[in-house]
Amino acid sequence: MSAREKIKKEWKSTDYELIVMALLGVLFLFVFAYLPMYGITLAFKDGDGKINVLRTLFYGEWIGFDNFKAFFMDEKFYQVLRNTLGLNLLMLVIEFPAPILLALSINEVMHKPYKKVVQSISIFPHFLSWTIFGGIILAVSNVNTGVINPVLEVFGLSSPDKPVNLATGEYIWWLIILSSLIKSTGWGSIIYLTAITGIDPALYEAAEIDGAARFAKMRHITLPSIMPTITLFFILRLSNMLDNSFEQFYVFQNGANLTRSEVLSTYIWKMSIGSSDRRFSYSSALGLFNSVIGFILLLIGNLTSKKLTGKGVF
């Protein structure tokens, strides 16, 4: 019997169905993920101000790294980069541990109805779009009609004569971080709760027999068991240090805080579609720079994690 006949004999009819399903997934990725990557060439062509972008993409004049030189020589770019890195670093420090702590806290709650209520309340903001949720935050923090200033007055942090305007550049970072914390913490905790449910209950039973208290079990069993999940999401979060949700930042931007709230995602949009100048090549170069730095951060984070913990994304 030849090798080809042996393979055909071993394969079941369902194998062909699975192969077709897998090929459809590969085709989807090729069409929507890999094929559009040809658009990267626009970053190396003279496409700024051109009406027909597709024509420029295929027949435009090659100008090398001129678009990259342009944004490296632009003072606005460094201001935007500083805002992006500063906000993402603060979000990493403040937001990343929050879902882990919430998951650990919910896991320790023994009253199941109460646990479900807490989970439902914490997850709900995730299902609101940033347009709606950001509008709610802006209404609540409004300097004239919001409820934040009366609360701050109770603690002596504000006054009717000099109210705190949270939408200005002085406070906008904290408003963005706080709103992101409220919106993402509950949803992010689901992953860690799922990882916790996969821990062998025998480990907790053995710890109880040894006299371990609740926090001791959390520290020595729960946290080490979900560490691979924490490591994975930390590396992925690190690789997105130059990425921000466009809707999240755009909804909070105004003339009073633009110098502090402009990040790469909103800046790229404004330089291309949102601007009359239509700097398509310039914004494509910015986007490519963003992606390359993200990929490098992913490699560095993965390598560092493997060195320290022996675990990584790949």
Give a description of the structure.
The protein is mostly helical and 314 residues long. The protein folds into two domains: 1-35; 50-133 and 183-309, MetI-like (MetI-like fold). It has helices at residues 3-10, 13-34, 53-59, 66-72, 75-95, 97-108, 112-123, 130-140, 148-154, 172-197, 201-209, 214-239, 246-250, 258-261, 264-271, 280-309. Helix 5 (75-95) packs across helix 10 (172-197) and helix 7 crosses helix 10 (172-197).
Highlighted features:
single chain; 314 residues; mainly alpha; MetI-like fold; 16 helices; 68% helix; flat
Q: CATH fold name of the largest domain, please?
A: MetI-like fold
CATH architecture of the largest domain: Orthogonal Bundle
Secondary-structure element order, N to C: HHHHHHHHHHHHHHHH
Spans of at least 5 consecutive residues with low confidence: none
Largest sheet: none
Please tell me what the overall shape is.
flat
Q: What's the helix and strand layout?
A:
Layout: H1 3-10, H2 13-34, H3 53-59, H4 66-72, H5 75-95, H6 97-108, H7 112-123, H8 130-140, H9 148-154, H10 172-197, H11 201-209, H12 214-239, H13 246-250, H14 258-261, H15 264-271, H16 280-309
